[in-house]
Amino acid sequence: MYLRSFKKQCEHKMINIKKVNKLKKKLNLKIIVSVFVLLLILIGTGTGFFLSQQSQDLRQQARSQYGPSFCGTTFCSFDQVCLRGKCMPEGSTTCGPNVCTPSQKCWYGSCADANYCKNDSNCNSSEVCLRGKCMPEGSTTCGPNVCTPSQKCWYGSCADANYCKNDSNCNSSEVCLRGKCEKNDPQFMKKIRKKIWDAIRTPATN
Known about the structure:
Elements: H1 2-66, E1 69-71, E2 74-76, E3 80-83, E4 86-89, E5 93-95, E6 98-100, E7 104-107, E8 110-113, E9 127-130, E10 133-136, E11 140-142, E12 145-147, E13 151-154, E14 157-160, E15 174-177, E16 180-183, H2 186-201
Antiparallel strand pairs: 1-2, 3-4, 5-6, 7-8, 9-10, 11-12, 13-14, 15-16
């Protein structure tokens, strides 16, 4: 009886040991697979980065020797593009047989100034066409020039809107001070005159 019980206990322990060994093997296999996958990811990442750096270095080396692109019979520099067989500033566009620079626009197959116009319909809704240019609404012509709404025409030239040389250039309620039309305020004028008078009376000091 005792021997049978001991035998069963031994068999039970052996079964447990086998189960533990199986679990250990499974865990070890999972760990090995995980480490292997991690190594593959690290190697792949490192290889990709190395190859991209090599490719970039080769492109930079080629550009330093030959420029970014071949154009006609020459090579364009880094800040140029090849259009119609010519090296043009980056941002240039084709216009029929022509090539317009970034500061120009295509006007019926020809290059014109970026804000060139023939009438108001060629400008934005908040602009008007004056002297062949799109200007802010409220602008006015002044001889050969065009003054913005914040300017006024001063003998054929554009000047600041409140610019003046004397009181006659200002409104009746204004006076000309330091080249600008200011409101004719007696208290303000008194202070200004006092400052001027003090500056005249005060002798210059070394």
